[in-house]
Design brief:
The protein is of the alpha/beta class. The protein has 18 helices and 22 strands. Strands 10, 11, 12, 13, 14, 15 and 16 form a seven-stranded mixed beta sheet that branches. Belongs to the glycosyltransferase 18 family.
């Protein structure tokens, strides 16, 4: 009798399609396969995800998993490979224009208040783009710091005026993405974080396509995704955009930087993308009313915690000679001793009450993040301390351990560098004569409300539109920004490319490093030796030794790096007026 059994490579298959016996293959192309099978024999019960994929303890199930879910063993000839996961195909859909809706409950008030400004800005952007096609993207927004898993310490304080910078930025990111017509899914818990990951402890990779084109999250969310996705995260990092308020430079975190795009609240460093937020714009009537009702001798010192007032008695006394001083300190029972008795304290104000208070005041005092721009937009003058020497990780506790070599010359560098006088005064608060002189100058100076274009609804829509449509992982050479924007400059010794480009009226553009990291770019330098190394200041050359070095590790291209021994080759670019993130031809 003819035995009805089909022979196959590495195993035996019965007529019903099940496998009975499997031999572990030993092929040069798959050298890790035997070791992985041994590991599965001992550990396959350590994570439920293996059983989810059909692993049952048999060698055949191990080989099926290791060849079809992971990639350590050769495909089995008797398996039906037509059922294996297919590559992700993205069906391009034109992005529609949308009206602003209520995206998150705790952000409703801000979104509603700015809805008309967003709608007007969207109409202006449509006119600029001249009906140009925009791909509609599937985007996951996972707000990690608001999840229960991260402790959610912020939500309870929102209605009391607590830390609003992150809330403001996330509300504006969500609104911008929505108004631009993208398909959003918002997640604020691990239960809602659906990424197609099999159940278990994250040991098994995601085999199917990622259900999103882009993922916006923060550091809390990134850590949660690492735990949730396990091995899958590495494969999909290029889709992730990390909202990083402070900023991260590749020299401090280059493995992460290689596959993640960091996006900041202010244009701290060109090594990161500037995401920003929106400050409310005033109409002409509101501007006139501000000028009519502004009180010249009133100042607000914006410090929500008593510790922020400690050691400030000297300049507060000088301020009190000229102006009525108001504060925003939060306390529950007794007035904290750090706050002088002459300060009229309003407590921790909800945002809408703070907006009502702003137009009454002439002077606005130190604070980071969003509040200074709101004050300047309401016709206040912002007075902030100068740091001499500049604060950095070398001399200041706040910056210690932060992934940046940035030297901060004042409390709000953006206001100092991009706005300046008459709206912003940066002085030494420890110099009583200089401080006194600044107060007197402010009292005789009249300013109009001012808001930088990049912090308007239109400016943010323009920027986010360009990012979503053009931006790829930073380590991949791209056609964006266009090569026409490149301006090659050479830094001085000890100067970063950020400084070299700024001194000539340009911006350092990390994406252009690929175009200048070659011998042709060094022709005018006349090097005796050209080699290749791994260092975040390269490409660069040493004048003393007449040696030039190219960058061997593209993941370390950095605008921020500097060395007293080298002059750097710097890929600068032009930029649009009022929109430092975009080049002239980038829209």
């Amino acid at each position: 009798m003819l035995e009805l059994k089909l022979s196959c490579i590495y195993c035996t298959q019965e007529l019903d399609g099940s496998s009975s016996q499997c031999e572990v293959p030993r092929e040069p192309r798959f050298p890790e396969c035997p070791g992985k099978v041994d590991w599965m024999r001992a550990r396959w019960t350590s994570d439920p995800c293996y059983a989810f994929y059909g692993v049952d303890g048999s060698d055949c199930s191990f080989l099926i998993y290791l060849s079809e879910v992971e990639w350590f063993c050769p495909p089995l000839a008797w398996r039906n490979h037509s059922s294996m996961p297919t590559p992700f195909t993205h069906h391009q859909t034109k992005a529609p224009r949308r009206q602003v809706s209520n995206i998150l409950n705790f952000m409703k008030r801000r979104i509603r208040r700015l809805a008309q400004q967003w709608a007007t800005a969207a109409n202006r952007l449509d006119t600029k783009l001249q009906q140009r096609w925009r791909d509609q993207k599937k985007i996951l927004v996972h707000v990690g710091f608001l999840t229960e898993e991260s402790g959610d310490v912020f939500s309870p304080k929102v209605l009391k005026g607590g830390p609003l910078g992150e809330m403001v930025q996330w509300a504006d990111i969500l609104t911008a993405l929505h108004v631009l017509g993208h398909n959003l899914k918002i997640s604020m818990s691990l239960k809602e974080l659906f990424l197609g990951v099999p159940p278990g402890r994250g040991s098994c990779p995601l085999t199917g396509p990622l259900p999103f084109d882009l993922i916006y999250t923060d550091y809390h969310g990134l850590q949660q995704m690492k735990q949730h996705m396990g091995l899958s995260l590495k494969r999909h990092k290029c889709h992730i955009r990390v909202i990083d308020t402070f900023g991260t430079e590749p020299a401090y975190n280059h493995e992460e930087y290689a596959t993640l795009q960091f996006m900041t609240m202010f244009p701290h460093t060109p090594d990161n993308s500037f995401m920003g937020f929106v400050s409310e714009e005033l109409n002409d009537t509101e501007k006139r009313n501000i000028q009519q009702n502004k009180v010249n001798n009133m100042a607000v010192v914006y410090g929500k915690e008593p510790s922020m007032w400690k050691g400030k008695e000297g300049f507060l006394q000088i301020l009190h000679r000229y102006m009525e001083v108001h504060g925003t300190v939060y306390y529950e029972t007794q007035r904290p001793p750090e706050v002088p008795a002459f300060v009229k304290n309003h407590g921790l104000l909800p945002q809408h009450e703070l907006q009502q208070l702003l137009p009454l005041h002439r002077l606005w005092f130190p604070v980071r993040r969003t509040a200074p721009l709101e004050a300047i937009a309401n016709g206040c003058i912002f007075l902030q301390p100068k740091f001499n020497p500049p604060h950095s990780s070398l001399n200041h506790e706040f910056f210690r351990g932060k992934p940046t070599s940035r030297q901060v010359s004042s409390q709000h560098p953006y206001a100092e560098q991009y706005i300046g006088k008459p709206h912003v005064l940066t002085v030494d608060f420890n110099n009583s004569e200089e401080f006194d002189s600044a107060i007197r100058e402010i009292m005789r100076t009249k300013v109009e409300p001012y808001l930088p274009y990049e912090y308007t609804c239109e400016g943010m829509l323009e920027r986010v539109h360009v990012y979503v449509q053009n931006q790829v992982s930073p380590h991949i050479p791209a056609a964006w920004p266009p090569l026409s924007s490149l301006r090659l400059l050479v830094s001085q010794e000890g100067q970063s490319c950020v400084e070299a480009c700024q001194s000539s009226g340009f911006i350092c553009e990390p994406a252009h490093f690929h175009h200048i990291n070659n011998k042709e770019a060094l022709l005018e330098v006349q090097c005796d030796v050209v080699d290749s190394e791994i260092n975040h200041i390269l490409p660069a050359f040493s004048v003393m030794r007449r040696e030039c070095s190219l960058q061997r590790e593209p993941l370390l291209f950095s605008c921020a790096g500097h060395s007293p021994k080298y002059r750097r080759l710097c890929p600068c670019r032009d930029f649009r007026q009022g929109q430092v993130a975009l080049c002239q031809d980038c829209l």
